[in-house]
Amino acid sequence: MTTLTALGHSCFQIETGDHTILIDPFLTDNPQATVKPDDVNPDFIVISHGHGDHIGDAVDIAKRSGAQVIANFEIVNWLGNQGVENSHPQHLGGGFTHPFGHLKLTIAHHGSGLPDGSYGGNPAGLLFTIEGKKIYHAGDTGLFYDMKLIGDAGIDVALLPIGDNFTMGPEDSLKAIEFLSPKQVIPMHYNTWPPIEQNVDAWAEAVKSQTSAEPVVLAANESLEI
Questions:
Q1: Which of 45, 83, 155, 169 is the most exposed, fewest CB within 10 Å of its CB?
Q2: What's the CA gap between 81 and 121, in Å, rounded?
């Protein structure tokens, strides 16, 4: 059984029988987070792009836990300069079979500057295949038509930003769900700060009435078994 746990904003933890994967580990200064960096002990850390609310505490967690960090080539190089020794670079369109399963980096339309202003390469979405299930973490992105191609993989769970302002908003997320055709969809990147406040209950009702997907709203520390 694979368990997906929300940790606030766009940070999620995936637990399999053998591995724990932490995605976009923004915990310190995250108003939604109820756990601290020292509370998590991942085997792998996966980073969608370089913005501070996604790369977050990756350096400190990686150094303490020894977790392998997976990100694009530019972010991996930057992490190496911060003293992170265990990493694996990938890039857009490229997939790799890790001990936990397969991970492919997909297109995301956004930025990726690192916290110190360094170039963070292209932002990415994350398409996991774990224990036969497809989990798509869209990262920070606007709506784009090629989501139809990502959906061809047969998505079990899609994690989509709905906050608007910096990413797609609720209306565009409905079109994204149409393109992706996931069985279940989880909202993320909303209600963390005033510019991205959304009525998530209204969003969930719209998903129910306008798409074939099941909306699953997870508060921090709530989990979904996949």
A1: 83
A2: 16
**Domain 3-220: which topology?**
Metallo-beta-lactamase; Chain A (3.60.15)
Q: What is the pLDDT of residues 33-47, one digit of tens each?
A: 999 999 999 999 999
Q: How far is CA 101 from CA 44, 133, 165, 182, in A?
A: 11, 10, 33, 19
Q: Where are the domains of the chain?
A: 3-220
Residue/partner pairs of 72-80 with CB below 8 Å, 24 or more apart: 72/105, 72/112, 72/120, 72/121, 72/122, 72/124, 73/121, 74/50, 74/112, 74/119, 74/120, 74/121, 75/47, 75/49, 75/50, 75/112, 75/114, 75/120, 75/121, 78/50, 78/114, 78/118, 78/120
Nearest-angstrom CA–CA distance, 20 and 22: 7
| Placement of tokens 């209306």 in the chain | 171
With beta carbons less than 8 A apart as the criterion, state whether 136 and 149 touch: no
